[in-house]
TrEMBL record:
The entry's keywords: Dioxygenase, Oxidoreductase
Ranges of residues in domain VOC: 1-114
SUPFAM superfamilies given in the database record: Glyoxalase/Bleomycin resistance protein/Dihydroxybiphenyl dioxygenase
A Gene Ontology molecular function term of the record: dioxygenase activity
Pfam families recorded: Glyoxalase
Name used for this protein in its record: Glyoxalase/Bleomycin resistance protein/Dioxygenase superfamily protein
InterPro entries for this protein: Glyas_Bleomycin-R_OHBP_Dase, Glyas_Fos-R_dOase_dom, VOC_core
Gene3D superfamilies: 2,3-Dihydroxybiphenyl 1,2-Dioxygenase, domain 1 (3.10.180.10)
The keyword rRNA-binding appears for this protein: no
Length: 115
């Protein structure tokens, strides 16, 4: 299993303000589903940050998203470890397969793969 990118998720109601502020630093909007907006660097596409007020299908806003090349293998490894699964493995309508797990620091990590 390989990590493809890591994206911090910032819980906020100020989406427009964040788009403008981080735009000053060179970020551009690369995704916006209304409830989550992701900004990315045009020169380094894996450099991203997401902003969301809530998560459309999960009970909490994750602190961090980690995209992996095999989300099913990641899920099995995490499940076997006994870590707390916060949101079960599922296919989402916007084209990702994901689950949430709580890390040793209490942070919620969204582990995902694109279909």
């Amino acid at each position: 299993m390989a990590v493809r990118r890591v994206v911090p998720n910032i819980r906020t109601e100020a989406v427009r303000e964040n788009r403008e502020f981080y735009g000053l630093l060179g970020f551009e909007e690369v995704m916006n589903h209304g409830w989550i907006m992701t900004l990315g660097s045009p020169s380094s596409p894996a450099a991203q940050v997401s902003f969301m007020a809530n998560d459309q299908t999960a009970p909490v806003v994750p602190d961090l998203s980690i995209e992996v090349d095999d989300v099913d293998a990641a899920y099995e490894a995490v499940r076997r470890s006994g870590a707390e699964i916060v949101h079960p493995l599922r296919d989402e309508e916007w084209g990702v397969r994901r689950f949430f797990v709580r890390d040793p620091n209490g942070r919620v990590v969204n582990v995902l793969g694109h279909r």
